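It would be a great kindness if you could assist me with a short task in structural biology. The full record is reproduced below for your convenience:
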Amino acid sequence: MKISNSKFFRKRLIALATAIASTGTGALMLPAVAQAEVSGNLGVVSQYLFRGVYENEGTTVQGGLDYAHESGFYAGYWGSSLGYGEPGGVNGFENDMYVGFSGKAGDISYDVGLLYFYYNNVDDADTPELYASVGFGPVSVGMAYLLDDVVWGNQGDIYWSLDYEANLPSDFSFSATAGFYTYETDGEFISETADSEDSGFRHLDLTLSHPLADTGADMSVTYMHGADDREGKNIANTVILGVSFGF
């Protein structure tokens, strides 16, 4: 149930490589060669929260691998340990596989794709999800549409997110994510009850991060202000510590 610790999503940081052309006096100009890049990430967080819901209340190891083409096409994988699993069994593991396309049109950035959640040792949780986002400067708006009934959501559930990012002095950076849900109240595993919500504000994440000396890693602290889940139960506020390394 990714989209990072924030967010929608868990946004995917895609590095787009540039085309390269060689020229020389009296030499034949070579055609530009399409370029691509493969990057990875590995991190540890004190808690894993998915759109405001606790997926692991202890130390969690997470990581992923991304392929990005200069055309805007990308594909990737992201995984995380979980704090729950099948009754009587070991804890589960989340696997997120995704493909998409991102780019810019003038000052407007966009991202659209398909993500598939696959879980080890968790029953009836696997599902595809469509996602899209539009950004302008430091602000972006995103949505994710669930395509199947699972134990954690109904087909037609839509998660909406509003994101803001800013660079601060001394190499600090700040980000904020507000999440809101619109729910389908009846599904194979989740049905409407007297306390069920049709929609509602889900969470607000405020994150401050900074490079960890010259190690190539980043450290972060996130304050999550929780709201109510789909059953109207309050999600407790929490502080999350994290260290991540990109390669």
Remarks:
- The two ends are 23 Å apart (CA to CA).
- The domain at 36-246 is CATH 2.40.160.40 (Porin).
- The longest strand covers residues 93-105.
